[in-house]
Amino acid sequence: MPALAIDNLPLPYRRAAAWWLGLFGLPFMAFAFWLLLTGVWPPVGEWARMSRWQPAEATLLAADLTVRPGSRGDPSREATATYRYTVGEAQYTSQRVGISRGGDNVGRHQAEMARTLVGYLQRGEPVRIWVNPANPTEAAIDRELRWDLLSLHAGFALVFGAIGMGLLFFALRLHRAPLPGPGLHAKGKAGENAPGLPRRYGNVWLHQMPGGVRVHLPYGRDLQRHIGAIAGGALFLGMALAIGKLMEREEVVPAIFAVVFGLLGVALSASSLFTLTTSLHANLDERGIRVRRRFLGLPLHSHQVPPGMVKRLELLHEQTTEHRGREIAWYRLLAQLKNGGTIALTDSLEGEDAARGLYTQVLERSGYRG
């Protein structure tokens, strides 16, 4: 089996990515299992159990169509009835109409069933019911499966389950992936024949400054990658809307599922939009390292350390992705501090050549060692 691009993640990032993938997959799987346990298995099990019930005649005492307002104006309908029947010498009363209890607005089944029962009641005609011979207190008027309702539940369970299983599979694959090789390090003195600055390395610009260099990440970087992430967030939001629509059709769907998917969609889209609308400046010179991040031109975060606190600069291999059959390595330039901390000098830097070029140029022109 060919190695996946995620195999190249360093161990800490690989474990973190596996946890995040698993956390994203769990809500999908939870909702799929909830649908199977409440919307697919119970009606199928009841249908199989009721197939052995015996027919009988009952007298309708009441019949109606109960309409409850939905959360968004789409009402829920439920055919209700009360009927009396006799088994042997005993009389029983029941209110069960079909296999599933409760209202919905899937199709016209509830309205048509109510219309039929009201007709029987008005004409004073007996209605056929199905009685459990082992327990005569159990009876129902309609023992047929609601295929429209069942297919709706099964379809949602299939889609959500497939997405959740895919995410959990990749999380497990990522967790078990072999360790990547060692990261990049600058060897010797590089950049002797390098063109003058400013120069672009992937999505990063390098500018010459008196006594050092400035690393600059502009707005709108990694546009294609972040558009994909925004599309993923839109998928989560779409799932939240779909669950909301299902909630309109059935009152028993917990709102927590729509909330979780909506929050995940907002978080995924917002994080990518945040990256697209922020810039990063890192100055490295004899006065130390100063990092500033701006959001739409407004100061957002800054960090400054004197040169004596800087231990070394490091180029960290974050991950390897694949685009149109071509593998793309992603790196991050870090400053390791003597107190054990780190300062990110760049966000993700695309391409090994660009990363190596930036790393060696920063080492040569800033005076810091790698």
From TrEMBL:
<keyword id="KW-0472">Membrane</keyword>
<feature type="transmembrane region" description="Helical">
    <location>
        <begin position="255"/>
        <end position="276"/>
    </location>
</feature>
<dbReference type="Pfam" id="PF12158">
    <property type="entry name" value="DUF3592"/>
</dbReference>
<dbReference type="InterPro" id="IPR021994">
    <property type="entry name" value="DUF3592"/>
</dbReference>
<feature type="transmembrane region" description="Helical">
    <location>
        <begin position="149"/>
        <end position="172"/>
    </location>
</feature>
<feature type="transmembrane region" description="Helical">
    <location>
        <begin position="226"/>
        <end position="243"/>
    </location>
</feature>
<feature type="domain" description="DUF3592">
    <location>
        <begin position="57"/>
        <end position="145"/>
    </location>
</feature>
<feature type="transmembrane region" description="Helical">
    <location>
        <begin position="17"/>
        <end position="41"/>
    </location>
</feature>
<keyword id="KW-0812">Transmembrane</keyword>
<protein>
    <recommendedName>
        <fullName>DUF3592 domain-containing protein</fullName>
    </recommendedName>
</protein>
<keyword id="KW-1133">Transmembrane helix</keyword>
